[in-house]
Amino acid sequence: MKNLLYLFLAVSLFSCNSKEKQSQISDNKMPEEIRTDLYGSWVGSFIVAERDTTQEVKENFINKINISIKKITESEVTGQSVVAGNIRPLKGEMTKKGKVIHFTLKEPGDDKNDGVFDFDVVNDTIISGIWIANNPKKEVRKRKFELVKKQFKYDPNLMLPNNGSYIDYENPKEEQVTYYENEEDSINNKEAETYTESVYRMASESISNINSSTKKLKESDIKNLKKIDLEILRNTIFARHGLSFKTKKVRQFFDDVEWYIPVEANVDNKLTETEKQNIVLLKRFEKYAEDNYDSFGR
């Protein structure tokens, strides 16, 4: 009889432990991921929608932005935003009302530039919405965006379009201009009018013809280039790897380029040996190169 009792207790204990383990496994089960078709990079223009006009203009009117969606479950969405050299984690939720899919994703809030993204998915091909800054005293309080899905892939053969004007509007130089009403006044040394004019650097077509990622450059390839040409050729290497540029001086040349997708804050470990050698050579020549300045309308 005792043996039967011990056997019954052992079976009961085993059964309880088994149920407890099954319950723990069930509790630890990862939430099911949904709408994985929306995962990836959504890229486009980040445009000022509301600006404090009483403050000095420091932020670009338009920046390129990459909103990356990494995981979606019924209860939580995670991802990151990449814009103007800042990479910020995102966390929030997805809601669905009828055919409308809506996301509310928040940056952590521990950075002065953090805010909240609110956007809808349109026809599964576009995300459209607004970003509102956490800080109501920020120069740019609100931005709007309409982004399309793009896949980043490093391609050393990507080149800058040759139909663009690569003018450095971020670093103008002021020049004194002397103006005579007519040629006769100039000849007779009559008093001239003077005014200050902003002049700018402009890159040559070399930036669209020289590939600084696939070809090991020689001194003869770059010795006659302007400083701005050398700077752009060097930064095109980083652009191909998806570096998110921090300075407006560099972003102005790449944000409008179709193939450029900002994805990382540092790509040094992605560079090829050819690229590393070319960067060293280009930086050495940049140190002594000069630029021509001219006036251009904006």
Q: Your description of this structure?
A:
By secondary structure, this protein is α+β, with helices and mostly antiparallel strands. Among the domains are: 36-150, Lipocalin; 203-294, Methane Monooxygenase Hydroxylase, Chain G, domain 1 (Up-down Bundle). It is 25% helix and 34% strand. It has helices at residues 2-27, 183-187, 206-209, 219-222, 227-240, 248-254, 273-286, and strands spanning 40-51, 62-72, 77-83, 86-97, 100-106, 115-122, 126-133, 140-150, 167-179, 193-202, 293-294. It has an eight-stranded antiparallel β-barrel with strand order 1-2-3-4-5-6-7-8. Strand 5 and strand 6 (115-122) form a beta hairpin. The longest helix has 26 residues, at 2-27. The protein is globular and about 85 Å long. The N and C termini lie far apart (100 Å). Residues 4-9 have low confidence and may be disordered.
